[in-house]
Amino acid sequence: MKIVNIGNSNTIFNHFISEIRDVKIQNDSMRFRRNIERIGEVFAYEISKEMDYKNQEIITPLGVSNGDLIIEKPVLATVLRAGLPLHQGLLNYFDHSESAFISAYRKHKTDDDFDIKIEYMSSPEITGRTLILSDPMIASGASMIMAVEAILSKGNPKHIHIVGVIASTQGIQYLQKRMPLKNCTLWIGAEDAEMTSKSYIVPGLGDAGDLAFGEKK
């Protein structure tokens, strides 16, 4: 599995990462969602460099030009509900794409002991297509592997791009060991070394779903 950390370059992307981590800025849920969306747009731009293009004649009002047009229509998949703003950022750029949605949740036995359950999935056919699967936080990596396994029931993609805004070192290692397909690229914005017993990334940013849409009851 290829790993690309685009936060390693000194760009405005890291400004967006810093803002979603900041407890003061997190009080503005609209800005938090928009920053996640902008992060998704940056990921889309970087992933687009891996796509296939076709040179085509373009008629302008004043003449003829030639342009490279993307010929792939990737399937964009995300994990509900936290992944929605990130998904929207990807969709803003890959605007001809079809979408897939996966509902996953933690079924707690105790505060620190839980199982991850996939409750629902909606997906188009993915065989032979590029799949971009996004989730803002990759903590233990277990839910991402379960999401991959669930969506593979819809077919065999040409390539999977996994997008995570922040990933733990443990989560990355888990994906490297458990990813069922070799044709996979992991795209992250930052790698954090620690994770709590409740599988929250440290320093991380907290619960992305709650910050975007309000606390769960």
Folded structure, characterized:
With 217 residues, the protein is of the alpha/beta class. It has one domain: Rossmann fold (3-Layer(aba) Sandwich), CATH 3.40.50. Helices cover 30% and strands 35% of the residues. Strands 1, 4, 5, 6, 7, 8, 9 and 10 form an eight-stranded mixed beta sheet that branches. A two-stranded antiparallel sheet has the order 2-3. Strands 11-12 form a two-stranded antiparallel sheet. Strand 5 (98-108) and strand 6 (114-122) form a beta hairpin. Helix 1 packs antiparallel against helix 2 (29-48) and helix 2 (29-48) crosses helix 3. The longest helix has 20 residues, at 29-48. It starts with a strand and ends with a helix. The mean pLDDT is 92.
Q: Descriptors for this entry?
A:
single chain, 217 residues, alpha/beta, Rossmann fold, eight-stranded mixed beta sheet, two-stranded antiparallel sheet, globular
Q: State the domain count.
A: 1
Helix share, percent: 25-40%
CATH architecture: 3-Layer(aba) Sandwich
How many β strands by DSSP? 12
User: End-to-end distance, in Å?
Assistant: 37 Å
Q: Could you spell the SSE succession in H and E letters?
A: EHHEEEHEEEEHEHEEEH
As a percent range, the share of strand residues is 35-45%
- Helical stretch tally: 6
CA gyration radius, whole angstroms: 18 Å
Q: In CATH's first tier, which class applies?
A: Alpha Beta
Major sheet, described briefly?
Answer: 8 strands, mixed
Low-confidence segments: none
Instruction: Kindly name the structural category.
Output: alpha/beta
